[in-house]
Amino acid sequence: MKKVFQLTLLSLILLAILADFSSQKEAEALINWMNSLNSNSSLLSWNLSNTSSSTPCKWTGITCGEDGSVIEINLPSSGLDGTLSRFDFSAFPNLTSLNLNLNNLVGEIPSGIGNATKLKMLDLSSNNFTNPIPSEIGNLLDLQVLRLYNNSLLKQMPFQLSNLQKLWLLDVGANYLENPDPAQFKGMASITELWLTYNFFTEVPLFVFRCPKLMFLDLSNNIITGQIPMHSFVSLKNLTYLNLTNNQFEGLIPSEIQNLLNLKHLKLGQNKLNGTIPEEIGFLSNLEELELHENLFHGPIPSSIKNLRKLESLNLKNAGLNSSIPDEIGSCISLTYIDMSGNNLTGALPLSMASLTKIRELGISDNHLSGELHPFLLSNWSKLISLQLQMNDLSGTLSPEVGSLHNLTLLFLYQNKFSGLIPLEIGNLLNLENLELSNNFFNGSIPPTIGKLHKLTTLGLASNQLSGVIPSEIGDMESIEVLDLSENKLAGTLPSSITQLANINLLYLSFNNFSGSIPEDFGPILLRNLSFAGNRFSGKLPPGICKGGNLIYLAASENNLEGPIPDSLRNCTKLNRVLLGKNFLSGDITNAFGIYPDLDFIDLGDNQLSGMLSRNWGECKNLGSFSIAVNRVKGNIPPEFGKLPKLQTLDLSDNNLTGNIPLELLSSSSILLKLNLSNNKLSGQVPAEIGELSRLQFLDLSANNLSGPIPKRLGNCQALISLKLAMNKLDGHIPNELGNLVSLQPLLDLSYNSLSGEMIPELGKLTALEVLNLSHNQLSGTIPSALEQLVSLQLVDLSYNKLEGPIVDQEAFLKAPAEALVGNALCGENAYLSPCNGHTLSENHKKNRRWKLMISIFIPLAALIILLVFLGIFIFHRYYKVDQDDKSVSEYNSFFTWNHWKKVEFKDIRIATENFSDKYCIGEGGQGSVYKAVLPSGEIFAVKRLHQDEEMKLSKSQMKNFMSEIQALTNIRHRNIVKMCGFSRLDRSMFFTYEFVERGSLEKLLQDDEKAKILTWDIRLTIIKGLANALSYLHHDCTPSIVHRDISGNNVLLDDEFEPKICDFGVARLLTDGEATLTAPVGSYGYTAPELAFTMKVTEKCDVYSFGIVALQLLAGKYPHELLSCLESRNFDKQLIDVLDTRIDSPAGSTVQLLVLVASLALKCIDKDPKCRPTMQQVSGEVLSYARWSITAPLNFITLQNLLDM
User: Fold this and answer.
1) Which end of the chain is less packed: N or C, by CB atoms within 10 Å?
2) CA atoms within 13 A on the CB side of 543
């Protein structure tokens, strides 16, 4: 017995020693790992030297078993920063739980993790682990829970995971994982919850259908294509949750879905499913949540929905439905959430919806609902917290019963046809935070009870017919942040209580009939957006209007304001847009303004401002448009304006400016589009450097004291649309190079100068020119016959020159009035001229012709010699540069993203374009240059090179988001959208590679008379259809929707079959990281929506306006100046036939029907009010269904008024 006792005691001592040794080993392993971390401040208790025992059992996050060994390590959200490379998993033989969730651990998951064989729970989610999942995890046969969510794990799911037959929860979502090997990945007998969301799966993994206990399956946000394999899903009898959202599933919802009888949650939104929603949905009587949003369905909501009495949430947003809401919806009595927005639902809200007494959130916005919002409905929806019925055709009054919705926090009824008074009972909604009633026909006054809404943060009453004054109670809304009362008939003075709105950050009172002065102490600290524009305010702008320094947008134009610029604006450094034009503001502005880093647009025009322009304007580096026209400013133009890299519009006209035009303004890097210095006292010559402004479209230097010749280099400004140099002291000959300005369209005015010599025949190249004024000069000789080619010319003035001989056979000359030809010795077939008598040219004229002949031989010969010299230099430089670049950037020879049937390396593109040599450049735009790359294989690509101001530096998460965006764009497929094939980066440039489209831009084809004749009416209408389809796809079928921002003739390309393709889609959104607020001018001049001059919001309706202009351009064969002028002057009697392109035969037959419809839609698209413009989905639908539409009048009798009334 004694021996047994001794042996037992010895064993216990030995076990204690071994346990202490094991515990010490675990402690040392933990310390070793802790010391490898970059940040471990949460592990201060992990310290061997400060404890009497080596056991880690009392350390933070450590749990030990009865034997003292570590069994759990729980360190979620502990701020750990480092890797697991020095974590010795073999040191923890009894570890059952490891939780390192929500830290900043990086690198790979070490293969040694397979040594922790007793693990039952492993959570490494929300870190940034990379590389593939180690196959050794498959050794953890006791594992029951595995969470690897939200990392950057790559490649295939290892088939060894299917060894984990005890696993009941597997979460590998939010990684970059691909489909596992279907042959080796076995079924998992115990799995009940499976998260595979946000990965790169291209099909439903087959092992899923071999998990008999599976109840929860999330495959959302992958790139799975094809039809839903419902025949396989029906084997999962226990399935209660199925999420396939945001994939690329297509086809019908299979009828077999009725067999998933245990389903409670069915999420199929954001796919490409089509057809009708099957009646079999009604068999899923246990369904609690149904999401079918953002698909391509049509037809009705199935009546079988009445069987879903347990349904709590129904999402049919943007699903393509086009019927009325069925009465059976009232049987879904458990519903708390409904979203049917963005469909084509018609008819009234069924009264059966009054049975939905549990409803809390109801959204049926952006449809075509009509009828009234019945009081019976409102009185039964007492639990509503959100009601969104905006953007419909609901009418009638807003009944007092709305006041019974005491839980309501959000009420959106804007853009309907409600009328009558806003009920006083609106003041009973004491929990209301957002109230939007804009764009209706409400009349009467603003109810004073509105002041009771102390929680209200947003109040929108814009674009109604409200009258009367603003009630003083408005000052009681202490929480209000956004208040928009613009575009009503409100009058009177502003109540003094408006100064009590301490939290206001947006206040729009524009376009009403307010009068009197703005309260002097007005200047809320948090104010960011303010508009007083279009009223009759008088007095001064409040001195503290930007007291808080937060003002971004300030509009007070078109009032009767006077006095100086408020002092507080000088330090208002966040300003982005300022509109103070058309007032009576005065005072010296020399030091009135400061430096504004974010300023994009400022208009001070049409005031009485004096002083000098400050050099500080040159420090406003984001300034895109500057106007101070029609004022009393003097002094020189500061050369610092030339330092503004984003300046596109500079209007200093109608002032008292003196001195020369600064050369700094004329840099080759300038992106100026409009330069107006007219009606000043500028002197000196027109600088030859003006030819550096390659993007300039509008140039007006008229009415100054400029002298000397017109510089030949002005001919380099080939983007010019309008040129005015009139009323100066210019002399010399008209340079032949002006013939290069082939884009000139509305005007070329060189009148009232001292120009001499003959009219140049090169003017005949200006085939788009509409008005030519060369009057009051000293031009001599005859009118060149080449001017007969001016097919667009409508007005000509050659009066008071020394011209002789016959006029040309061109309509503008033949119909010119007497005052346009007087002061010459002209003859010809004009009612005001004598017939020509056959006289010959003067001897001087013959000599001039002989001299020109000599020049025509000598100059080309000299040019050829010079060209050969430069060509030799260029070839040497080019090959040297390519060789050097090849050595320095070899690491950039591959694409970051490539999505094309044939593999191409980026180095192939660089070689094909000789490192993006200018000779391969086929176009330039506002964001960069486009190159044509012809590969040895015969493949042709268009490569857009975007220039960056500085090297792009992105965090890992930003780069992940950016590349996901690129990946999404390369996956876009539409016959009318240019396919993006790939993306790469090199130095400071980004490169987007597109398919090459053969015929080039629509703009160039319309400018070429011969090519334009090929564009028959059927082809042009097909082009318009294609554009409508493409924009409808970008706006309504892409998620998130894509606003193009720059629809113009230059961004519409035509392939061999004249099929249109929109290019440059999505690039603007990439460059601004999704922001929809303007910080620089966007779009092409003449195509941008007018509201962009007053608001900062880019919406789909901006694209709609641009589409309307392009459609009209196709009908007119040129930019529709004439038609737009008729609309502006309200000349609605203009006949449609008079504005159609005369270069092709008049339309006939059924073509007339579609043409008239397109013209009517185009006019609606360019409505000044964006809310009145149709959506592109509506336009596309109308054009596709035009056969149901008929006209009764012949084409010759249809006027603009008829089109507007259709």
Assistant:
1) N
2) 3
Tokens 């999704």 correspond to 1074
How far is Cα 748 from Cα 723, in angstroms, rounded to an integer?
Answer: 5
| DSSP sequence for 931-942 | EEEE-TTS-EEE
List the one residue out of 662, 721, 654, 657 whose CA is nearest residue 690: 662
Percent of the chain topping pLDDT 90: 67
494-509: string of b/e by CB count within 10 Å (b at 16+)? bbebbbbbeebbbbbb
Which amino acid makes up residue 174? A
**Cα of 994 vs its chain's centroid, Å:** 19
Give the domains, in start order, of the chain with CATH numbers.
27-40+55-224 (3.80.10.10), 659-827 (3.80.10.10), 896-995 (3.30.200.20), 1000-1205 (1.10.510.10)
Residue carrying structure tokens 């609309």: 1127
pLDDT reported for residue 1078: 40
Structure tokens at 70: 């570590």
pTM: 0.66
Cβ proximity of 429 and 404 under 8 Å: no
Q: How far apart, in whole angstroms, are the C-alpha atoms of residue 21 and residue 422? A: 81
Q: How far is 1003 from 1005, CA to CA, in rounded Å? A: 6
DSSP 277: P
Q: Tell whether omega for the bond before 524 is within 30 degrees of 0, i.e. cis.
A: no
Q: How far apart are CA 785 and CA 807, in angstroms?
A: 8
Out of 123-137, 237-251, 282-296, 1037-1051, pick the least confident.
Answer: 1037-1051
How do residues 138-147 score in pLDDT, each as one tens digit?
999 999 999 9
Tokens (6 digits) for 12 = 């216990």
988 Cβ contact partners less than 8 Å away, ≥ 6 residues apart: 947, 948, 949, 950, 951, 952
Give the relative orientation of helices 1176-1184 and 1100-1116 as an angle to the nearest 10 degrees: 40
Please classify residue 1053 by burial: count the beta carbons closer than 10 Å to its beta carbon, then call 0-12 exposed, 13-18 middle and 19+ buried.
buried
Q: What are phi and psi of 601, to 5 degrees?
A: -140, 130
CB 459 within 8 A of CB 450: yes
User: Whole-angstrom Cα distance, residue 869 to residue 442?
Assistant: 75
CA distances from residue 116 to 72, 145, 757, 1139 in whole angstroms, order as listed: 12, 14, 96, 81
Give the pairing type, strands 608-610 and 482-484. Answer: unpaired
- Which residues, in sequence order, are bridge partners of residue 942? 932, 994
> Is the pLDDT confidence value at 317 over 80?
yes
Tokens encoding 96: 């059952």
State pLDDT tens for residues 1101-1110: 999 999 999 9
d(CA 413, CA 893): 55
Sign of CA dihedral 968, 973, 978, 979: positive
DSSP 112: G
pLDDT reported for residue 401: 96
Helices 1017-1032 and 1176-1184 pack at an angle, to 10 degrees, of 140
Q: State the chain's mean pLDDT as an integer.
A: 87
Name the DSSP class of 489: E
Q: Given the DSSP bridges, would you call strands 128-130 and 154-156 parallel, antiparallel or unpaired?
A: unpaired
Q: How far apart are CA 777 and CA 955, in angstroms?
A: 63
Looking up tokens 């030519």 gives: 772
Residues 6 or more apart whose CB falls under 8 angstroms from that of 513 comprise 489, 490, 491, 535, 536
Coarse DSSP helix, strand, coil percentages of the chain, rounded to the nearest 5 percent: 30, 20, 50
Segment (H or E) for 771: strand 771-773
DSSP 273-309: EEEPPPGGGGG-TT--EEE--SSEE-SPPPGGGGG-T
Pairing of strands 722-724, 698-700: parallel
995 burial class (0-12, 13-18, 19+ CB within 10 angstroms)?
middle
Neighbours of 155 (CB within 10 A): 13
On whether the CB atoms of residues 631 and 607 are closer than 8 A, the answer is: yes
List, by residue number, the catalytic residues.
1046
Nearest by Cα to 439 from 421, 469, 413: 413
